[in-house]
Amino acid sequence: MRKKRGFSLLELSIVLLVIAVIIGMITQSSDVLQTARLSTARSITKSSVVNDIPGLILWLDATSEDAFDTAMDDGTTVANWNDINPNPNNVTPYIATQGTVANRPTYRKAILNDLPGLDFDGVNDNFVISNFKANSYMTLFVVGNFSPVGGKTAFIEHSVSMASNDGFYFYGFGNKVGGVSRNGTVINGTFDLNWFKGYITSIGVLRYDGTNISYKRNSNSFTNSAGSIPNTSVTTNLYIGSEAGSILFSDGAFGEIIMFDRALSDTEVNDIVTYLTKKWQIE
Asked: How far is CA 55 from CA 7, 124, 214, 222, in A?
């Protein structure tokens, strides 16, 4: 009977070399696809309707070459997220900042349908834009992917406590969907427990037009709640990824935030949602 023999050292070396080559080819192919995907996203952004719709006051985009102070590597914490608004009303474009290293979100190159996003840990990560000026009448778009756990979804708040100070908020959980406050009057969105949860990359839209506070996910119809407050401007801190910068924190990733200082028409909203859907490959 012929004896079975094991692999020789040379044969093992050849097998390992082949495996290494295959892994290298797969990795290289993945990198090429991600690079192409990012290039396409940037091209879509440059030609998007956002550039032509009046009233744009903030545009944060994790895919933009101008979004960060330096080129970002996967896993790098981010100190500043730069406004890419091509025609800012303020003298200096806004910058979302975090001075405390431990509270900075992390850049992930393929966290949102193979596109970059800023990953917030749900513990203390957040950004602040100081002296952010916003009208009561406004429209806000958020692209992100957040935890299904209540209290850990999307947070954007204008003021340290919108319930007792003029400002607005846009949350992704419970009965705190969105609202605007002026002179002690708060207009809140209706109760909707699961509207923006589930680690699924989605678009959230908030709009106030003086008659209704409205919100929706992706291309769905708006949910409206009636209420009237005056259209006045407020300048205060804008918190991204937290409630008031110190209470509740987002667990998930932000990819793009777009805000206008007026209530956009349904057609304008739909045009921007179409742009974001195509760019972020949202189903």
From this structure: 70, 32, 18, 21
Q: How far apart are CA 67 and CA 143, in angstroms?
A: 15
pLDDT > 80? residue 150: no
Q: Which residues, 6+ apart, have CB-to-CB distance to 33 below 8 Å?
A: 114
Give the Cα separation of 242 and 240 in Å (integer).
6
150 phi/psi in degrees, rounded to 5: -55, 135
pLDDT at site 20: 66
CA angle 150, 104, 237 (to 5 degrees): 75
Burial zone of 87 (CB within 10 Å; 0-12 exposed, 13-18 middle, 19+ buried) = exposed
In contact, 196 and 173? CB cutoff 8 Å: yes
User: Within 47-118, where are the H helices?
Assistant: none
Q: Are 227 and 212 in contact (CB under 8 A)?
A: yes
The pLDDT value recorded for residue 24 is: 58
- Using only C-alpha atoms, the chain has a radius of gyration, in whole angstroms, of 22
Domains of the chain: 48-280 (2.60.120.200)
Q: For residue 111, what are its two tokens?
A: 């966290």
Give the contacts of 26 (CB within 8 A, at least 6 positions apart). none
Distance, in Å, from the CA atom of 181 to the CA atom of 158, rounded to the nearest integer, reads 10
Q: How far apart are CA 138 and CA 116, in angstroms?
A: 27
pLDDT digits (tens, 9 = 90+) for 230-254: 999 999 999 999 887 777 899 999 9
Look up tokens 């094991």; give the residue: 6
CA atoms of 220 and 9, how far apart (whole Å): 61
